[in-house]
Amino acid sequence: MDRYKLKGHSAVFMANVIFGLGVPVTKLLLDNWVTPMGYIATRSLGAAIIFWIVQCFAPKEKVMTKDLIVILLGGLLGFVVSQTLTSFSLYYTSPFYYSLVAAMTPVAVMLLAAVFIKERITPRSVIGVLLALFGGMLMIFASKANLNGGSNDLLGIFLAILSLLTWAVYLIVTRKISAKYSPVTQMKWVFLISALVTVPFAMKDFSANRLYTSEVAWDGIIGMTFIVVFATVLGYFLIPMAMKYLKATTVSVYTNLQTVVAAFVAMAIGQDILTWDKPIAGILILVGAYIVTTRNDDSNSSPVKK
Fold first, then answer.
1. How far is CA 84 from CA 24, 93, 201, 208, 255, in A?
2. Is 51 within a domain?
3. Domain span at residue 119?
């Protein structure tokens, strides 16, 4: 594996580890401190402020108008729409059904990439994606007995499918843009549009967000700081970096790693126990990612020229 691929794999691996760590933190925040819209708006506004401050010290890049439109639309799809659908999906259905749908992300990305950007599907890619998919589903099915249904599973599953598709489309439509501009340039616009869209909606139920009242405590502040700085700013900084060097299908394969990381975090804090399926699932996901991307004809072994 050359240094460009290694850089891409390292970026997407770290991003999904961070996203996985954010799962139990998000649960804590939603259960105790913020509403779903308050959560998303805080992430958007916090990330926008940080990225616009950072860009003051970064090399300036002129973004073409047509590329800016793609970045803005990508931000709406990949963050606002996808994250909002995820929140409401989990409100209506159980984590089991949501995780089952989310585990299909690599398959959706592979098929959509083949249709829209002509990414070639090879038998090796199919094997790698299926291994990663099996790894994610293995742990989900193994823990099914401990999960309860939601208030409206059909609606929740439908919203989860929409969330999956919006994330898949985001990875595909921003693939070429990611190769042209730095992550800071892209993300400052992504989170600016996200904040402009979400903050007005969150203001309607501002009083319901205990994080912004006199009841606030340090665990809420620390939790939201982690989500904004790491699970949003750093995580979404790393994804476009990875897409400079890897195919959209490859990036999506790592999505199932979030499930494994979240499970091990839950075990570490006493919310879950170690079972036989968890380490096997992690190995299958990593092996699947390796198989998908170790092809002799992989054209993404070096940066795409601007």
1. 17, 14, 12, 17, 18
2. yes
3. 3-293
